[in-house]
């Protein structure tokens, strides 16, 4: 924990660390690209749900503020976050269980890879699913627009791609649960609660 200076100092001065995992973007912003020893690709290391996405918390009924911040939505990021968050929600996951994801949008397809792990890493379960999704252009609210999916309000993004993203997350979570992911997650929760 701590800022980049503190983290790198610990790596350099303490014998207990051989490496540290940091966001390459942060090191690049500081001009410390030479400190990057290896880039971890999604095949090697997925990320936490919503990692790197920025959000603005707004009161659900404050339409003026919702309209104001609505123009900030990046449609691809929004759809990826909806898929990731619905995956985690359907697994009944949270910050105390090892769940990771990777999403991409390519050629009208939203790909979601998700996985669960035991705390010691001995058991793992992961899979990938995809759905057709057309990256939307922002539009004006329509009568059928639902203001929220998995805690995300995006009235200026068409509802259909949002629903497709949500259903993708639910489908992948259901697939993993049917393969036994619930047992892995239950044990992880119990072990975390014991500590």
From TrEMBL:
InterPro entries referenced in this protein's UniProt entry, alphabetically: HemC (IPR000860), Porphobilin_deaminase_cofac_BS (IPR022419), Porphobilin_deaminase_N (IPR022417), Porphobilinogen_deaminase_C (IPR022418), Porphobilinogen_deaminase_C_sf (IPR036803)
Names of the cofactor(s): dipyrromethane
Record's keyword terms, sorted: Porphyrin biosynthesis, Transferase
Keyword presence, Transferase: yes
Family as reported in the entry's similarity comment: Belongs to the HMBS family.
Name this polypeptide is given: hydroxymethylbilane synthase
Enzyme class (EC, first level): transferase
A single Gene Ontology CC term: cytoplasm
GO biological process: protoporphyrinogen IX biosynthetic process
Presence of keyword Transferase: yes
SUPFAM superfamilies: Periplasmic binding protein-like II, Porphobilinogen deaminase (hydroxymethylbilane synthase), C-terminal domain
Domain called Porphobilinogen deaminase N-terminal: residue spans: 1-66
Organism: Cervus elaphus hispanicus
């Amino acid at each position: 924990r701590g800022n980049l200076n503190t983290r790198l100092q610990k790596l350099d001065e303490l014998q207990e660390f051989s490496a540290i995992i940091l966001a390459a973007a942060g090191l690049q912003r500081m001009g410390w690209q030479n400190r990057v020893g290896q880039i971890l690709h999604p095949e090697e290391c997925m990320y936490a749900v919503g990692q790197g996405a920025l959000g603005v918390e707004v009161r659900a009924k404050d339409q003026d503020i919702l309209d104001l911040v609505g123009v900030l939505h990046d449609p691809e990021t929004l759809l990826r976050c909806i898929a990731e968050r619905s995956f985690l929600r359907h697994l009944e996951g949270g910050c105390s269980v090892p769940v990771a994801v990777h999403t991409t949008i390519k050629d009208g397809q939203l790909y979601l890879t998700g996985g669960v792990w035991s705390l010691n890493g001995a058991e793992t379960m992961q899979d990938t699913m995809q759905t057709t999704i057309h990256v939307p252009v922002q539009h004006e609210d329509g009568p059928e627009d639902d203001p929220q999916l998995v805690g995300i309000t995006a009235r200026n993004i068409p509802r259909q791609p949002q629903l497709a993203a949500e259903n993708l997350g639910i489908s992948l979570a259901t697939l993993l649960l049917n393969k036994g992911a619930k047992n892995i997650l239950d044990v992880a929760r119990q072990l975390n609660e014991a500590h």
